[in-house]
Amino acid sequence: MKKVLFVSFESLPFVKTGGLADVVYALPKALDKNEFEVRVVMPMFKVVKEKYYQGMKYLDHIYIHSGYINEEANVYSYINEGIEYLFIENDTFFFRDGVYGYKDDAARFSFFNVAVLEMMIKLDYYPDICHEHDYHTAVLPALCKIRYNAIESIRNIKHVFTIHNLAYQGEYDKQVLFDYLAFDYWHYENGDLRYNDYCNFMKIGIHFADIVTTVSKTYANEIQTPEYGCKLDPILKYRNNDLYGIVNGIDVQSFNPKTDKSIAHNFDIRNYIVGKRENKLALQRSLGLKEDPDTLLVGMVSRLTFQKGADLILGALPEMLKGRVQIAILGTGESKYEYSFKMLEEGNKGRCVYYCGYNEGLAHLMYAGLDMLMMPSLFEPCGISQLISMRYGTLPFVRETGGLKDTVEPLNE
Ligand code: GLC
Question: Which one of 80, 103, 287, 398 has the lowest number of neighbouring Cβ atoms within 10 Å?
Fold first, then answer.
């Protein structure tokens, strides 16, 4: 039996800011239990502590000395749907309202990576494979191979590093490598840790992991080009032999139109025509749109960012609204997009609705009730919304890029 440890900053049901949390939740569940013993380790954020602390089991206490960082932490365990989650509790770094976006993020990420290794030593638990996700956990392979390499059980761990989005890299002043991670200057000087004159966590992960994966085949190819490589294409090219694109899946139990309690009418392949129609009417009703099964209802469930093609949609909507069409947008994001969608709603009352916020129940009803889902991302490592929409019989309307290209078949090439 191989021991696998997922190392991540987010996972459902505990905390989610993006698709990463869906994957770190769904993938451990999907791995064969006869072959792999999977655990997940993540920080104990405020939201997690408030909701799950009561049900957790205290395991141990650890000390983290790393450069200027001198901290303590507790390790807790919690079983969710048969998967053991390990939580690193340190209130200085993690008892905050958000997950990322703090001035001391570099110290928080560094602390967590070192804490995971101190946890292994204290619990005498050494996985065969560590699976690190995105730049927040990307320095772990380097720590194992440099600072902790005297410990055989740590030196022998194999590392799979998955890039969920190359656009976010964790680029900091080079002092982070010495002040928070206590690496020696030699490994900076020789080029292993440095990226130009900076510390770049993503680059370190790509350089030191045994295998690098990303979340679709097309994206794996795209990121080796200057257009999509976010300046790391030369490094990805040089790891080309160990770089794999493996497309994401969704948890088909959480997203099942036959059993989904958030939608108005459950349905499957045999009664989807009635099912889709009932959900469409319910969606129109709940959004204050005219109830009409024959008007094309087009929508978007997304973070409103540049990546997701918000500009393309805003450019096309005035023209689209000349036809017999209703528009429903759900999501938050950059304020300029939120403002533009609000304005668009103002000018098209009753035909265009913008729900500014996140509402899980409404999102499910949209997947079930829309005719078409718009997802014209400029780049998309994999994308989850298009997969969910297809599960609910809603046509995804996508750009041919990354995972969108690999998962949505073109109607007319
Ligand atoms: C990121 C990517 C998205 C991907 C998700 C999970 O959010 O932008 O394309 O589906 O990670 O891998």
Answer: 103
Amino acid at 244: Y
200 Cβ closer than 6 Å to some ligand 1 atom: no
Question: For a pLDDT cut of 90, what percent of the chain falls above it?
Answer: 98
pLDDT reported for residue 319: 94
Assess whether pLDDT exceeds 80 at residue 267.
yes
pLDDT by residue (tens digit) across 25-39? 999 999 999 999 999
Q: Is the CB of 382 under 6 A from ligand 1?
A: yes
Q: What is the mean pLDDT of residues 220-233?
A: 98
Residue nearest to atom 12 of ligand 1 (CA): 164
CB-CB contact of 25 with 251 (8 Å): yes
With a 6 Å cutoff on the Cβ, whether 147 touches ligand 1 is no
Residue with tokens 């690193």: 88
412 has a pLDDT exceeding 80: no
> Going by CA atoms, what residue is nearest to atom 5 of ligand 1?
19
Q: Ligand 1 atom closest to Cα of 381?
A: 9
Q: In one letter, which amino acid is 49?
A: K
Mean pLDDT of the chain: 97
The model carries a pTM of 0.95
Region for 338 from its dihedrals, namely left if φ exceeds 0, alpha if ψ lies in -120 to 50, beta otherwise: alpha
Locate tokens 């039996």: which residue? 1
**Beta carbons of 320 and 314 less than 8 angstroms apart:** no
Going by pLDDT thresholds of 50, 70 and 90, the confidence category of residue 413 is: low
CA dist 371 and 105 (Å) reads 41
What strands lie across the sheet with 194-195, from one edge to the other? 171-173, 198-200, 194-195
Q: How far apart are CA 237 and CA 229, in angstroms?
A: 10
Distance separating alpha carbons of residues 215 and 244, to the nearest angstrom:
9
